[in-house]
Amino acid sequence: VQLVESGGGLVQPGGSLRLSCVVSGFTFSNYAMSWSRQAPGKERELVAGIGSNIGNTNYADSVKGRFTISRDNAKNTLYLQMNSLKSDDTAVYYCGKGSRWGRASDWGQGTQVTVSS
């Protein structure tokens, strides 16, 4: 099982980023997936989840209306579109396999998102 995140970087407050997570080693379309994040000195927290059925999504209150989770099962890829970014969104973002609620069986290596002027 491999999960490889990309798309992080430095962005100004109010800006946007799109994270991607390309997976291999399992049948992607059969599994719920999630994005979580961990800021320095804080515990990892769930950001968003999506079921194997693309219509089922869930979000942390802190990102509702700003972030959108999606998936392309044909490309084995999970996405996180992040708009109206705030400094509080600064963290390492991880994709996880197997749960919409962050209780993943496998994690990627993470991608750093820094929101700063």
Detailed description of the structure:
With 117 residues, this protein is an all-beta fold. It is 0% helix and 49% strand. The chain is built from no helices and 11 strands. The protein has strands at 2-6, 9-11, 17-24, 33-38, 45-50, 57-59, 67-72, 77-82, 91-97, 106-107, 111-115. Strand 7 and strand 8 (77-82) form a beta hairpin. The chain starts with a strand and ends with a strand. The model has no long low-confidence stretch (mean pLDDT 96).
How are the SSEs ordered, and which strands pair?
Layout (H helix, E strand, L loop, with lengths): L1 E5 L2 E3 L5 E8 L8 E6 L6 E6 L6 E3 L7 E6 L4 E6 L8 E7 L8 E2 L3 E5 L2
Parallel strand pairs: 2-11
Antiparallel strand pairs: 1-3, 3-8, 4-5, 4-9, 5-6, 7-8, 9-10, 9-11
Q: Summarize this, please?
A:
The protein has strands spanning 2-6, 9-11, 17-24, 33-38, 45-50, 57-59, 67-72, 77-82, 91-97, 106-107, 111-115.
Task: Give me some keywords for this one.
globular, 7-stranded mixed beta sheet, 0% helix, single chain, 4-stranded antiparallel beta sheet, mainly beta, 117 residues
